[in-house]
Design a protein that fits this description.
single chain, 424 residues, 16 strands, elongated, binds adenosine-5'-triphosphate, binds magnesium ion
Length: 424
């Protein structure tokens, strides 16, 4: 029986990889320009990191984690998100001793046991950025500006930035209680999960996708009616910084985000081109996360971008697939050997060159050059080789010229080939 990939786990094939590389390269350039450094964290962590960090009563911890015991009986989990691990690494390596403010980013796969569908997979990729060590709303605004700037840089437009505040330890309990009381009166309308959430985590009801639950929350009290003056000040000041930067946002008082650690600022970037899985990125402030995982009280804020959803929104027409600069079609034994020597030399010069490995006819070699979409083909026959020359064919306009072989690299360079320095 043929072995297939696991459901919800995707291969990213060579014809798509150009887009992924472009997105990752742009993220690195933009984030590093904003002063962020890359961090790479393990894919496996102790389950406790997520159950304590993200919160026991969240969907992720309750039902979406890939958790298993290793051979020594430790409970391990494939990371469902990167923030908790990044916070752990910051504490574990005492990065705060080097510099109290850490701006970090991370790119890689996450794992959640969800129902696979368009825009929702079991292994998916995120680009994460986090700032640890500052509570000032200036940083919230700077991070959001960076996110939007990055999304625009890869060509995404028509995005909507949704903003909310979730209160903090001082005021969220009152909101939670107010919401719980309201929802109790609507309990008959709630799905089974939400009936349970009523006690464990009533804020999660606001995030439920079930139609009757959505109706039940239509007149629910808003967090903004409950927040304390400190949270209000933080929120007002964030809005002011965003306005100064000319960034449009809409307020969404129902947005709660799926992780329990958020405090104050919460945001989401939504695209209406995406259908039902419409959030491209989400994030927020989490001033209690560090304490939950055993650290000091350190404020933090960050976001995660879903790469699959982002890539599905990239504008059409941009050239992502790389084609050979040159294909060498050689006919006969001596020309084949010469072709092999030239191709190796070109590779060392950073020129993408291909040749025929199978002793095929000239016609079939030319077909392959076409199929590979080579920009030029060098036709090398016995006759030409004796004179130290070859025919260079422009595959686009079909024009041909004879050139001396010793000038090949120069000629190619003159034709403005992309030369990546090979470092040799
Ligand atoms: P959603 O409401 O879509 O489930 P979420 O609140 O669970 O999103 P986060 O944990 O904040 O999402 O992750 C940030 C981003 O990662 C999302 O906005 C989305 O683009 C992407 N994402 C989350 N879960 C998946 C998944 N299972 N498959 C693909 N992308 C995902
Ligand atoms: Mg989710």
């Amino acid at each position: 029986m043929e072995i297939k990939a696991i459901r919800g786990f995707n291969d990213i094939l060579p014809d798509e990889i150009g887009k992924w590389q472009f997105v990752e390269k742009t993220a690195r350039e933009v984030f590093e320009g904003f002063g962020y450094s890359e961090i790479r964290i393990p894919i496996l962590e102790r389950t406790e990191l997520f159950s304590r960090g993200i919160g026991e009563a969240t969907d992720i911890v309750e039902k979406e984690m890939y958790t298993f015991s290793d051979r020594s009986g430790n409970s391990l989990t494939l990371r469902p998100e990167a923030t908790a691990s990044m916070a752990r690494a910051y504490l574990e390596h005492q990065l705060y001793n080097i510099e109290s403010i850490a701006k970090l980013y991370c790119i890689g796969p996450m794992f959640r046991y969800e129902r696979p569908q368009k825009g929702r997979y079991r292994q998916f990729y995120q680009i994460d950025a986090e700032v640890f060590g500052v509570g000032n709303p200036m940083v919230d605004a700077e991070l959001i500006i960076m996110l939007i700037h990055f999304l625009n840089s890869v060509g995404l437009e028509k995005l909507e930035l949704q903003l909310n505040t979730l209160g903090d330890r001082a005021c969220r309990p009152q909101y939670r209680e107010g919401l719980r009381k309201y929802l109790e009166g609507k309990a008959f309308q709630l799905c089974e999960d939400c009936k349970r959430r009523l006690e464990t985590n009533p804020l999660r009801v606001l995030d439920c996708k079930v139609e009757t639950c959505k109706q039940a929350i239509a007149d629910a009290p808003k967090v903004t009616d409950f927040i304390c003056s400190e949270c209000q000040k933080h929120f007002d000041s964030l809005k002011e910084y965003l306005e100064t930067a000319g960034l449009a946002y809409i307020l969404n008082p129902r947005m709660v985000r799926g992780l329990d650690y958020y405090t104050r600022t919460a945001f989401e970037v939504v695209s209406y081109q995406l259908g039902s899985q419409n959030a491209v990125a989400g994030g927020g402030r989490y001033d209690n996360l560090f304490q939950e995982i055993g650290g000091k009280e350190i404020p933090g804020i960050g976001f995660a971008i879903g790469m699959e959803r982002l890539i599905s929104l990239l504008p059409e027409g941009k050239q992502f697939v790389k084609h050979p600069d040159l294909f060498i079609a050689a006919l006969g034994e001596a020309p084949s050997k010469e072709a092999y020597r030239i191709v190796n030399q070109l590779h060392l010069e950073g020129i993408r060159a291909e040749l025929d490995y199978e002793g095929k006819s000239l016609k079939s070699q030319m077909r392959r050059a076409d199929k590979l979409k080579a920009r030029y083909t060098l036709i090398l026959g016995e006759e030409e080789l004796k004179r130290g020359r070859a025919v260079l064919r422009n595959m686009e306009n079909k024009s041909q010229e004879e050139i001396p072989l010793q000038d090949l690299i120069d000629s190619l360079r003159k034709k403005s080939f992309q030369i990546e320095q090979s470092g040799l």
